[in-house]
Structure formats: structure tokens, C-alpha cells
TrEMBL record:
Superkingdom, taxonomy of origin: Bacteria
GO molecular function terms listed in the Swiss-Prot or TrEMBL record: DNA binding
Name of one Pfam family that matches: HxlR
PANTHER family for this protein: TRANSCRIPTIONAL REGULATOR, MARR FAMILY, TRANSCRIPTIONAL REGULATORY PROTEIN
Swiss-Prot/TrEMBL keywords: DNA-binding, Transcription, Transcription regulation
Species this chain originates from: uncultured Solirubrobacteraceae bacterium
Matches recorded under SUPFAM superfamilies: Winged helix' DNA-binding domain
Domain HTH hxlR-type: start-end pairs: 14-111
Record Gene3D superfamilies: Winged helix-like DNA-binding domain superfamily/Winged helix DNA-binding domain
UniProt keyword annotation of DNA-binding present: yes
The protein, known as: Transcriptional regulator, HxlR family
Length: 139
């Protein structure tokens, strides 16, 4: 006799599903990682990630709407903005750190930035830190 598939006890719908949809794609996680590393300006994120302007704009807007990033003006006429990680965004740190750590351990091709992140995560692990005190992995 075949066993029945387990039924999820907490189906994900509504706001929870919207939040997961907004957070769980490759670009969004990479953008969030950049912000947590201290890259706050659009041009820096675009350059570091080699992402199209329209896709970066879309993902930044979603992260701001989710309350993960905050948009702050740093120049007027025309208005230019920086993106800062909010308290809610910092609460995502363990997930971002775990994914970054996994990639650093299991992906052979590390660039210099990933190696620095790997080293910082190893140091944090030795010290029992869940999140860097300054909110930044590397400076």
C-alpha cells in the first residue's frame, strides 16, 4: 500500500508568499549581500554584479517595499539615492551568511571578494558570532 504524501501544516500564502517571492531569487540575494557588504549606491551595485539597470531597479524597489532596504538621498538635482540595510534586513543576515558561506566552501572558483568573505565568515564562526557587530562582512 502506497503511503500518502504528507500535508504541509503551515501553507504559505498571502504576505508570507509575497515576501518569499521578493527575497528568493539570485539577484535579490546578491543585491542584499552587496548592501550588507557596504555597497550602498546603485552604480556600485550595478558594476559589482554586472546586472542590467532595469533589473537592479526592480529588485531594489522590491527590497525597499519589503522593508529590507531603505532608500536615502545623498545628492539633489538630480536626486540620487543610497540603499541602506534596515533592522529587518539585518535579521536576514544569518540566511545570507549561511548561503555565502556554503558557496565559499563548495564553489571552486573564488574571486578575491569571495575569499575575503569566506575568511571573515570563518573568523565569525570561530568567535561564535551570528552577525558582525558593524553589520559588514568586509571593509
Amino acid at each position: 500500500m502506497a503511503s500518502a504524501s504528507p500535508t504541509p501544516t503551515l501553507p504559505i500564502s498571502g504576505p508570507a508568499l509575497e515576501a518569499l517571492d521578493g527575497l528568493c531569487d539570485r539577484w535579490t540575494l546578491l543585491i542584499l549581500r552587496e548592501a550588507m557588504l557596504g555597497v550602498r549606491r546603485f552604480g556600485g551595485m550595478q558594476r559589482n554584479l554586472d546586472i542590467s539597470r532595469s533589473l537592479l531597479s526592480d529588485r531594489l524597489r522590491k527590497l525597499v517595499n519589503l522593508g529590507v532596504l531603505e532608500r536615502r538621498p545623498y545628492r539633489r538635482d538630480p536626486d540620487w539615492y543610497e540603499y541602506h540595510v534596515t533592522e529587518a534586513g539585518l535579521e536576514l543576515w544569518p540566511a545570507v551568511a549561511a548561503l555565502t558561506h556554503w558557496v565559499a566552501l563548495h564553489v571552486d572558483r573564488l574571486d578575491r571578494g569571495d575569499a575575503a568573505i569566506r575568511d571573515r565568515l570563518a573568523e565569525m564562526s570561530r568567535n561564535g558570532e551570528l552577525m558582525p557587530a558593524d553589520g559588514l562582512l568586509v571593509t
